[in-house]
Amino acid sequence: MTSPLPSSSAASVLDLAPVVPVVVVSDAADAVPLARALVAGGLPAIEVTLRTPGALDAIRAIAGEVPEAVVGAGTVITPEQVGACMAAGARFLVSPGWTDALLEAMRGAGVPFLPGVSTTSEVVALLERGVREMKFFPAQAAGGTAYLRSLAGPLPQARFCPTGGIGPANAPEYLSLPNVGCVGGSWMVPADAVAAGDWARVEELARGAARLGRDPGRSGG
Fold it and tell me: What's the CA gap between 192 and 216, in Å, rounded?
């Protein structure tokens, strides 16, 4: 059964799980068992980054063979990539930054999208364009939890998926913020486990990530 994901709201991506695995797939043959392990561990939203030649094939394989996964494309930086990702079966799009041309292409794709921001001006510019859900990147380098906490007061309508420098030690602090819906990270897909095909380890790490608690009193979750 395909996991539900209304195409009208990127907030549905933010709310699927506390962590979105950010996956770099070197061998497309690993995509399906990797996705199955992540889903079994409780992480249905999977961002496959366009950093390798096999990324689109990986998205296509997951979309076709792991319907319970919500597979998305990350590191989307051109309008042309948007079309390729949609053709491969991506169900959401993530960019490290944005331009008006890229934003228009992502909006026209008809699926949830998370444009990347790292400054207050970029956040305000997206709000002006009707976008409320964003990727905060690179999270740690751009100011971390202190920066996001400062944004929550003047810009409470913006919600974020912080990514970059986040692991199991600091993820709970991010998730405790009222303007954070989820975090992106790769610690549950260590390169050595993927290379060895140790999907049981990936599933175990994913299960730990899925258990990262959220404060019941947080708003916007």
Answer: 35
203 in active site: no
Whether the Cβ atoms of residue 159 and residue 208 lie closer than 8 Å to each other: no
Strand, coil or helix: 141? coil
**The token pair that represents 110 in the structure block:** 């008809």
- Which one of 68, 133, 135, 204 is the catalytic residue? 135
Angle, vertex CA 144, rays to CA 112 and CA 166, nearest 5: 70
Look at the alpha carbons of 109, 111, 114, 120 in this order and tell me if their dihedral is positive or negative.
Answer: positive
Catalytic: 173? no
Question: From CA 197, how far away is CA 119, in angstroms rounded?
Answer: 39
Residue among 47, 65, 104, 203 flagged as catalytic: 47
Single out the residue of 93, 84, 135, 85 nearest to residue 112, CA to CA. Answer: 93
Average pLDDT of the residues in 127-132: 98
Q: pLDDT tens, 46-98?
A: 999 999 999 999 999 999 999 999 999 999 999 999 999 999 999 999 999 99
Query: What is the C-alpha separation between 194 and 106, in angstroms, rounded?
Result: 30
How far is residue 58 CA from its own chain's centroid? 16
Q: Which residues, listed in sequence order, are joined to residue 22 by a DSSP beta bridge?
A: 47
**Which DSSP symbol is given to 19?**
E
Tokens of residue 219, six digits: 């708003």
